[in-house]
Amino acid sequence: MTETPVLSIRSWIREALLGYAFWCLFQGLAPIIWFFPLNELELSGYEAFAVCLLSPCILGITAFKRFFSQRYSMALLRLIAIAGLGSFQCPSTISRLIVLCAGLASSLIVLAASITSKNQLKRHTTAWGLILGLLTFVSVRVWFLSFVPTWWNDTWNSITVAFGIIATIDKIASGEDSEPKSNEKDVYNRNCLIMGCGLGTMLFQTQLLLGESSILSRWTIKEYPDPGPQPFPHGALIIFTLLIGVFLIWNGIFRRSKLACIVYTISFFILYYFPRTTGFSAGLLVILYTFLVWPEILDDLTTSRAASTFVIGAIVYLIEIFFSVWTVAYNFVPGGVFTRERTHVLIGIMTATLSLYVLTGKDQKKNNSPAMILNAKGSRGTTKHASSSLMIICILLLLFGFGGFFYRLPNQEFNHPPKEHPNANFTAAIWTYHFGYDNRGWPSLERTKTLFDKIDADFITLLESDASKTFLGNNDLGLWLSEKMGMYVDFGPSTKDHTWGNLILSRYPIVKSKHHLLPSPEGELAPAITATVNMSGNFIDFVVTHMGNDRDVLDRKLQAEVLSKELKKATNPVVFLGYVTSAPQSREYLQLIEKGNVKDIDSTDMDRWCEYIMYRGLRRLGYARISNGGLSDTEIQVAKFQIPESKNFKDNDKLITNPSKIERINRFNPSFGEFSHGHNWIVDHRYHMSTPKYFLP
């Protein structure tokens, strides 16, 4: 076997950048496709763009395989792939989707052609480039609080594209894409069906758990006071697990172990069924196993039928990611009744296909296969395929990820003004957030922070907030907002609980909470949180929820009954912030008001449908409705309350709209305009719907 040249650190940095570009494109596809059915609440037809994942099928045609194996053809494909990264700056959602799909399709053809090339160096750099790119992808997201900088804003997108262009030009100039002339017949060592199933599961499983360091915490999160391991600092254990994986791969310890396969399968189900530390620890084993299998599968891909294996892999990946969507969106898709809340079935499929691949393979080291051995250290005369520079790059990339955690130390307590009498007032807000994407499909976090800084809310509940799911980008909205806004966060029901999410942010410590999965026999699973917050010694209870769809009448009836019981048994002053999907004076509304023993913040406001604010044991000061500003399809509702000094107090009943008669400290921010009737259709945040209103004795 010909010795593979030892590459320089510069070459490995280039490969890491190219690998990172692949993972950015791959991760970016699902969220932008999801944008369309999200707005229509049904299949939109744009899901067909996922066909770009089948692009390697073109390599099944001999003429195209020869064409795309040539140096200049590869150069063209690489440049198209980098252009796909620039899709973020396209003027419309559909143009962004088209350009991204073109880039991903080109990137997959490059990957398939390169990993099965007769050029040993080309195979070697492609395989390790994919692994280095994954390490880069995970580490860089730590610094961006779970987000991918490529898809964050125009500045970081341009920086990524610039580095991608530099790396691509350097790759083209190196001549490593040249294909040697050879009359040797291709040797295929594995069944392409089994290989494809393994590849598809690996791609999905990597996205599901390994694409971001906070995902595992959100799978195993529970209520306060013991929520379990948190994204910070426990997310650093994911980086540490990958570091262990690098050393195991380097020393060739993992070789298709049956015991490891059994442990992986059991651990995956423990992760699913057990919360907190038990589930988190099992998840670390699943992540370690996933990372260890990557070199094995890349090794096998070098002697596979590129077209067949990658197409089967893409189909398996699509089946698994659509299955994951169907487990949550079952109320809006055909056949949802069969997939409803059945993630355990998906896990069974994943563990079965990956175990089948691992256990039916042969150890290349023992069988002298022509496949490139990815055991970096080598043993007993095997060719040394990786230099010390490769090991250095792996370690540096992971240390870069650790740096993102150390940069955020120390984890100080938030220092907010105490709530003391006579100004023991607080502001609460509710918003249906649409997973952190605006109405055009671009991230809205920075604009959200600006919005809430102006609102000056002490307590916020965000609905449709669980973007930690694979098809939503694995973005942790709670992590980003809590750290940037200096607020405590309760993520709500975990990512594996099949809801759309319901988190709370509080400037003051969350003493205790309880997560609820409300009765939902007909429709989507409705989440809720009951929480107690310590506002400088004043304990306030909050009940927040996203009730079911308006067409699911039985669901809303049962959900209102549960929520009213939670409201009634609250022992402290209580605030209800809920998405009720019912009109004022409806059955659900009256159930909450009468059985929950609460008051509407403004019973005269009859033009509401979704969001409601109710309360008990507090003195109301003000109520405002703020237009969504293009960041969501739902307005923000805000209420100001005063914490009474004693239980014997009289509520404010006089309604006024002139802020000059209100103490400045109790006024709403004038930057949103003045009192305004009707809807605000301007793409900006403005008071509307006959608010803001104030209440006096």
Automatic annotation (TrEMBL):
* Compartmental location: Membrane
Q: Which UniProt keywords apply?
A: Glycoprotein, Membrane, Transmembrane, Transmembrane helix
**Superkingdom, natural source:** Eukaryota
Q: Name one GO biological process term.
A: GPI anchor biosynthetic process
Ranges for domain PGAP2IP second transmembrane come to 191-366
Q: Where are the transmembrane segments?
A: 17-37, 43-64, 94-115, 127-144, 193-211, 231-250, 257-274, 280-298, 310-330, 342-359, 390-409
Q: Please list the residue ranges annotated as the PGAP2IP C-terminal nuclease-like domain.
A: 425-649
Gene Ontology cellular-component terms listed: endoplasmic reticulum; membrane
| Limits of the PGAP2IP first transmembrane domain | 20-169
Has UniProt tagged this entry with the keyword Lipid biosynthesis?
no
Q: Does this entry carry the keyword Membrane?
A: yes
Q: Membrane topology per the record? A: Multi-pass membrane protein
* Described function: Involved in lipid remodeling during GPI-anchor maturation.
Listed under subunit, the entry gives:
Interacts with PGAP2/FRAG1.
Q: Which family does it belong to?
A: Belongs to the PGAP2IP family.
Task: Quote the protein name from its UniProt record.
Answer: PGAP2-interacting protein
What does UniProt list as this organism's lineage? Eukaryota, Metazoa, Spiralia, Lophotrochozoa, Annelida
